[in-house]
Specification:
Largest sheet: 5 strands, mixed
CATH superfamily of the domain at 199-350: Histidine kinase-like ATPase, C-terminal domain
Number of helices: 19
Structural class: alpha/beta
Strand content: 5-15%
Shape: elongated
Number of strands: 14
Strand order of the largest sheet: 2-4-5-7-6
Length: 576
């Protein structure tokens, strides 16, 4: 019906003589007129032979008939030409409509195929997520069972050493934290937000701890585990320790998990600031068609033994993205039935000697300078107890509040240097409390109080400290105590004291630095200008000019090499 209406519309819209060419019309008219002329001439000759006396009358009559036929021929020729033109237009419209219908049918077929593909992908994703939820449930219940069991044994007074129970509970809690972090990593990766730290990592000791952990796992499974470190491994490197550990644990655990018999190995090479980690196994292998697929979330390959293994199916997906974010990549070479080799390449730069020296393990006993006051606001009594137990032995004046209004009232009375604030609290949330504390400081004459958010609401993570936010930093729960101390030191410009440092060499007074006042002024100017090379040269000159300043120079140089110019200037100001 649509095609017919299109043709009718096309014909009705054509002008009366549309497409009728004069040459064609003249040719057709000439043919018809010629036929008529020949026919009338034959009739004239026949009638003239019968009645010669009426020859003139016959001629006149036939000429009249010829004239009428010429007029009729013109009309007939025009009609035939018009009819042929209409036919051609109708034929062209029908062909065009047929072409459009064919294209529309092809489009519908493509759309249907796409819908079927999307439906199959959605069903596959749904099944993958169902398997993932089962795996997550299993992974979470295992460490929870250990924590729950040891907690019950301790409550019943069983003869278990506190160190043993504490170690099991801590390791199980770390495992739970890693699972939650994996889920958060997927969320952050999908949203394009992933924060990397610049830690100073003792690489040989770091790798040895991983190797010992997985050597025990391999031996328990009846496998051999080999470790081949390069002879030129640097003592310290600068990278995100947590992410590097996460990547290597994922690769090593997979190597042991998917190797029924044989061996697994870790080979480390280092050249030109590039570290290469080869994790090899003699396991089930991966078909070439599935090598890219195993790096997708929730995918674990098609082999039955792979699907039977416990896990979440997120490890390799997170591993590849983390490696790429850290400036490296992960590749794999595998042969089914023979084994696989996962190759990780990362840039791991070496920190300066002075910076590396400060990274060695030490027991913090306090901090230099005046006594600082910290206010804790959290509705969890256990969390308050943990933080008070950490901070009070270090020399802080610690006040605690269990809700927002109480915390605001306490802040007005104790004038804290730093507030550690939870987000999720009854009544006023942490965000509301932070904004009210900022407003109170703005109404008064004092400087704004430093605010660190300490919360399990990792999805609300915001770095802060940009001058516009109501907080200066964010620490996620469960709290890693060393990371919390680093955050506190960064906010209050503290120099920690330990058995390896004394107050005399940790902090220099303005009088000690008076002979180098010009050099200190130059350092401040270069720091404000962001001149990194100039700062390195000025620090070297200060160390040569005033040997007593070497501890301070080492601390300042660590900020410069980390490109932390804000921390550099704060540290410089803290020493007058």
């Amino acid at each position: 019906m649509t095609g017919k209406s299109d043709v009718v519309a096309t014909l009705s819209s054509a002008p009366p003589l549309a497409g009728v060419r004069s040459s064609s019309f003249a040719a057709m008219l000439a043919v018809i007129t010629g036929i008529n002329a020949v026919s009338l001439y034959v009739i004239f000759r026949a009638l003239a032979a019968i009645a010669p006396a009426d020859r003139a009358v016959i001629a006149t009559t036939l000429w009249t008939v010829f004239g009428v036929l010429v007029v009729a021929s013109m009309a007939g020729a025009w009609w035939l030409m018009r009819l042929r033109n209409r036919w051609r237009i109708a034929e062209a419209a029908a062909a065009d409509r047929a072409t459009r219908l064919t294209a529309e049918i092809a489009t519908h077929r493509n759309t249907d195929a796409a819908l079927q593909g999307a439906r199959a992908a959605a069903e596959a994703a749904n099944l993958a997520k169902s398997r993932y939820l089962v795996g997550v449930s299993h992974e979470i219940r295992s460490p929870l069972n250990a924590i729950y069991g040891y907690a019950q044994l301790l409550e019943r007074g069983a003869g278990i050493a506190p160190e043993e129970a504490g170690g099991v509970i801590r390791r199980s809690s770390e495992h739970l934290t890693n699972i939650v972090d994996g889920l958060l990593d997927i969320s952050r990766i999908e949203s394009g937000v992933l924060k990397l730290n610049r830690d100073i990592v003792p690489l040989p000791a770091f790798l040895e701890s991983l190797v010992e952990m997985f050597r025990v796992q391999a031996e328990n499974k009846g496998l051999q585990f080999h470790y081949h470190p390069a002879a030129n491994l640097p003592a310290f490197v600068r990278t995100d320790e947590k992410r590097l550990r996460q990547i290597l644990i994922n690769l090593l655990s997979n190597a042991i998990k998917y190797t029924p018999t044989g061996e697994a190995s870790l080979t480390v090479r280092y050249r030109g600031l590039i570290a290469e980690f080869d994790v090899a196994d003699t396991g089930i292998g991966i078909p070439a068609t599935e090598i890219e697929r195993i790096f997708e979330p929730f995918e674990r390959g098609s082999a039955d033994i792979a699907r039977a293994q416990p896990g979440t199916g997120l490890g390799l997906a997170i591993t590849r993205v983390l490696a790429q974010v850290m400036g490296g990549d992960v590749a794999v070479v595998s042969t089914p039935g023979v084994g696989s080799v996962f190759k990780l390449r990362l840039m791991l730069a070496e920190p300066g000697d002075a910076v590396a020296a400060t990274a060695r393990q030490r027991v913090i006993s306090g901090y230099g300078g005046r006594r600082r006051t910290i206010l804790l606001i959290d509705d969890d009594p256990a969390q308050l107890a943990v933080l008070q137990g950490l901070l009070r032995p270090l020399g802080f004046s610690v006040y605690a509040a269990s809700n927002g209004p109480e915390g605001i009232d306490l802040a007005l009375r104790c004038t804290p240097d730093l507030v550690l604030l939870d987000i999720q609290m009854p009544g006023l949330s942490g965000w509301d409390v932070a904004m009210r504390l900022r407003a109170v400081a703005a109404d008064g004459d004092g400087a704004p109080v430093k605010i660190l958010l300490v919360s399990a609401n990792a999805h609300e993570f915001a770095a802060g400290g940009d001058g516009g936010a109501a907080h200066d930093g964010f620490v996620t729960k469960p709290v890693e105590l060393e990371a919390l101390l680093d955050a506190i030191a960064g906010q209050l410009c503290l120099d920690w004291l330990s058995d390896a440092a004394t107050p005399a060499d940790a902090v220099l007074s303005a009088a000690d630095l008076a002979p180098a006042a010009a050099r200190i002024a130059e350092l401040r100017r270069l720091g404000q200008a962001g001149h990194i090379r100039g700062l390195e040269a000025a620090l070297n000159a200060l160390a040569e000019e005033l040997p007593a300043s070497r501890p301070l120079v080492d601390q300042l140089r660590s900020h410069v090499r980390a490109f932390d110019l804000g921390g550099f200037l704060r540290h410089l100001d803290a020493h007058g």
